[in-house]
TrEMBL record, chains A, B:
Keywords: Ligase. This is Histidine--tRNA ligase. The lineage of its organism: Bacteria, Bacillati, Bacillota, Clostridia, Lachnospirales. It is an enzyme of class 6 (ligase). Its EC number is 6.1.1.21. It comes from Hominisplanchenecus murintestinalis.
C-alpha cells in the first residue's frame, strides 16, 4: 500500500538546507553555553499526563497531544472521559520537564545547576504560516543561584551566542518585576489589579503613552492615579540614569537593592560584552508570564519585529512544582525564529574547507575505483567534504545540481 | 500540587555526563558522514497512524504509542475501536518516515540522495535493563544509487566513524543475500523454505555447525541436502579466497557479477580504510530483515558481544511504501549501544582546552565583579570553559564537587 506523503497536519519535513542551518545553530549554542559552564540535559518527550495538567502550563494545557493507554490498561468499554483513555502526553514546553528532572535528580546535581536543554515540544495549535505543531525549544536555566550572578552570566552567554550569528545588531531590554510593581504601587493602583495594569502597559510600543492612558481610564482607574503613572514613565530614561531616577523617585516603595542590582547588571554587561549590541533599561517591559519574580529581559534583532529570546528570574515556580523552594533564573532562545531569520537572509555558514564532487564514468574497473577512493580519502583527511558519484548521461544537469548543493569543485574520472 | 518525579515508565532522564558523550558522538557522526557528502534531514516524530500501520513495520506495529484525536474529531460516545480514537502515533523507526520524506520531497532532492537521519523513536516494549521506550536511532542511506559505490561509501564512512571512537579494534562482516540464496539453492533446499533455513543458519555462532545441521534435519530437510550445505560452509574461508571459492563452486547458480562485486567491495575497503579494523567475508551472516536484496553487513566491536551497527541493500522496500521503485542501501548505527559502551569504559572526550571555575566571596562589590567577569571573558576567548560561582561556607566540598565536574583549575577571588 502507498503512504500518505505529507507530514501530519501542522508539522514539517526539514530539508538538507534548513538542517545545515539548524545543526550550525545547535552546535553554536552547545559551544557557547558550554564555555560558560552550562551542562546539557535531556528529558523524555513523553510526560505523565498529571504533570502536564498541573495548571502551571496555562493555555498550553489545552493543546496537549495525548497518548492512549496501551494493553490491558486501556478499557474502552468502561471509559467515560478522555482522562480514562490516556496516561501521558507530548510535552508542550521544557519547564515542566526541567522541574521534574530537578526534583528527580537534585541529589546528583551540582548547586547551583546550570542547565542547557534543547528539544522538541508539541502544541496542537491552529496551524498557521511559520508556526508549527512540533518545534524546537532551547532553554538555559540556572537553578539555586540567588544573586544577580545568574542574570549577568545568562545575559553575557546569550549575547555572545547571538553576536556570533552575524546580525546587523541587536538589543537587550531589561526590567524588574519589582520595579514594575513599585511603579504601580507608587501611582496608587490597588495591588489586585497590577496584572491588568501590566497587560495594558505591555501595549505601550503599539498604542503609545496616550493609548495606555486611555485604556487604563476605560478600565475605571482614577485619572490622578493614571497621570502619576505616566509622569513616572515620562521622567525615566533608558539607561543607568533612568534606574537612578526611579531609585530616588520610588524611595520607600522600591527596595534600594533592586535598583542597585539593576545598575550592576547593566554595568557588568556593558563592561564585559564581546558582541555589538545595546543593553537598555526598559520600564515598560512586562513579559507575559506572571511567574517572574525579579529581573526580566528580552532580546531582539535590530530591524526585525518581535523578540528572539527572553527570560528572567522565577524564584517560586520550581517550588510550586516540586514542593522544594528553589530559586531560578532562565533564558529561552527563540530557536525556530533565529533559524527562520537566517534562512530568509540566505545565511552562509562560515569557513568550511570546501566541497568536492568526484564524478566517475559508468562501469569503472576495480583499479580505477581504488584510485578514486584513495584520492577521495586524501581530500577528506584534509577536512574537505567529498562525494563520489557515477557520471550521468546528462552530465551538464548533474553538475548544475552539484553546484546548487554547494560543491565548488568537480573532478571527472574516465575509464582507460 | 507536586509533580510525579520519575520519568514515564521505560523512559529516562539523561545526566550531564551522558549528554556530554551523546553530544560528542552526534557531532562526530554529523562531521564524518558530512565529509562523505551526506546531508542531514529530519521528519516529525509524529506520523500518520495509517503510515505506521502499513504492515511494513512488522512486530514494531504492535508497540506504537498512539495519539488521541483532538477537538471535534474525537467522538468518545460513538467510538467502537482504538482506531476510531487515534489519528497518529510516535514513529517506531526512521525507515517509514524516510520513505514518506522521499515520496514527498523527491523533486527537490539530488539523485542519488545521501541522507543522514538522527532522531528519537518510540516503542512500547516491555521495559528491561539497558532498553528504553524512547531511544535515538541513526540511519544513513543512499537512495537511487544502483552500484556498489553505495556499499563502499557506506562502509568507508561508517568505519571512519567507529575508528574515531578509540575502541581497541572492530570487525565488519559482509555477505550478500544473493550468495545466501545461491548456497541454499545449490544445496537443494526448496525456495519457499529459504527464510526458515536462514533463521537456523543465523544461529551458527551460538550452536555451531553441528547444531545447525541438527536443527535443519529436525525441520525435515533431507540429510543429503543438509550435508551439501554444510560442506559448502566448511570449504569457504573468511576472505577474498572464500568469495572466489564460492564463485567457482556455485557457478551457474550464483551470478558471477555478485561475487565480483563482493570482491571489489572488500578490496576497496581494505585499500582505502583509515581505521584499524578487519573486513571479513562471512557467508553465515543473515541479518533478520528479509527486505534486504543484495550485500548485507554488520559491525561489531572486538571483545564486546553483539553488533553496533548493520545494514545492507534494500532495492524494493521504498517502492512498496511509495509506489515508485527506488534502489537503496543503508547503514543503521547502534547509537545507544555505542554511548553505553563509551560510558562503561568511562570514556574521556579528547582535547578540550580546559575548564576553570572562578569562586568569588559573597557580596562581591561591583568593581570586583567587573574584574572577575572580564578575566572570565579573557579565558573564554581562548577557548576555555569558565564558570563563575559564589564561594560557599563549605568551600572544601564545593571544590570537590567542581573537580568531579571536570574543573581542573579553581581560582579564588576575595573582597578587598
Amino acid at each position: 500500500m502507498s503512504l500518505k506523503k505529507k507530514p501530519v497536519t501542522g508539522m514539517k519535513d526539514i530539508s538538507p538546507r534548513e538542517m545545515e542551518i539548524r545543526d550550525y545553530v545547535i552546535q553554536l549554542i552547545k559551544e557557547t553555553y558550554g564555555a560558560f559552564g552550562f551542562s546539557s540535559i535531556e528529558t523524555p518527550c513523553v510526560e505523565h499526563i498529571e504533570n502536564l495538567s498541573s495548571k502551571q502550563g496555562g493555555e498550553n494545557e489545552k493543546l496537549i497531544f495525548k497518548i492512549l493507554k496501551r494493553g490491558e490498561k486501556l478499557k474502552l468499554d468502561t471509559a467515560e472521559t478522555e482522562g480514562d483513555l490516556v496516561d501521558s502526553g507530548l510535552r508542550y514546553d521544557l519547564t515542566v520537564p526541567l522541574s521534574r528532572y530537578y526534583a528527580n535528580n537534585a541529589n546528583d546535581l551540582p548547586s547551583p545547576f546550570k542547565a542547557l536543554q534543547m528539544g522538541n515540544v508539541w502544541r496542537a495549535d491552529r496551524p498557521q504560516r511559520g508556526r508549527f505543531r512540533q518545534f524546537m525549544q532551547c532553554d538555559i536555566d540556572i537553578l539555586g543561584e540567588p544573586t544577580i550572578l545568574a542574570e549577568i552570566e545568562l545575559i553575557l552567554a546569550t549575547s555572545t551566542l547571538v553576536g556570533k550569528l552575524d546580525f546587523e545588531g541587536f538589543t537587550i531590554r531589561i526590567n524588574d518585576r519589582k520595579i514594575l510593581k513599585a511603579m504601580a504601587k507608587y501611582s496608587g493602583f490597588p495591588e489586585e489589579s497590577y496584572d491588568l495594569v501590566f497587560i495594558i502597559l505591555d501595549k505601550m510600543d503599539k498604542i503609545g503613552m496616550e493609548g495606555v492612558a486611555a485604556e487604563l481610564e476605560k478600565e475605571g482607574f482614577g485619572k490622578e492615579c493614571v497621570d502619576r503613572y505616566l509622569e513616572l514613565f515620562e521622567g525615566v530614561t533608558n539607561n543607568l540614569a533612568g534606574v537612578r531616577y526611579l531609585k530616588e523617585k520610588l524611595a520607600g516603595v522600591l527596595d534600594e537593592k533592586t535598583a542597585e542590582d539593576m545598575e550592576t547588571i547593566i554595568e557588568s554587561v556593558e563592561a564585559v560584552k564581546t558582541a555589538d549590541f545595546k543593553i537598555v533599561f526598559d520600564p515598560t517591559l512586562v513579559r507575559g508570564m506572571s511567574y517572574y519574580t525579579g529581573p526580566i529581559f528580552e532580546i531582539s534583532i535590530d530591524g526585525f519585529g518581535g523578540s528572539v529570546g527572553g527570560g528572567g528570574r522565577y524564584d517560586e515556580m520550581i517550588g510550586k512544582f516540586t514542593g522544594n523552594q528553589t530559586c531560578a533564573c532562565g533564558f529561552s532562545i527563540g530557536f525556530e525564529r533565529i533559524v527562520m531569520l537566517l534562512l530568509e537572509k540566505d545565511y552562509q555558514i562560515p569557513a568550511k574547507k570546501g566541497k568536492t564532487a568526484f564524478l566517475m564514468e559508468k562501469n569503472m574497473p576495480k583499479e580505477g575505483l581504488l584510485k578514486i577512493f584513495k584520492e577521495a580519502e586524501a581530500e577528506r583527511s584534509q577536512g574537505k567534504q567529498v562525494t563520489v558519484a557515477v557520471m550521468k548521461k546528462n552530465k551538464k544537469f548533474q553538475k548544475e545540481q552539484l553546484t546548487a548543493e554547494g560543491y565548488t569543485e568537480i573532478k571527472e574520472y574516465f575509464n582507460r
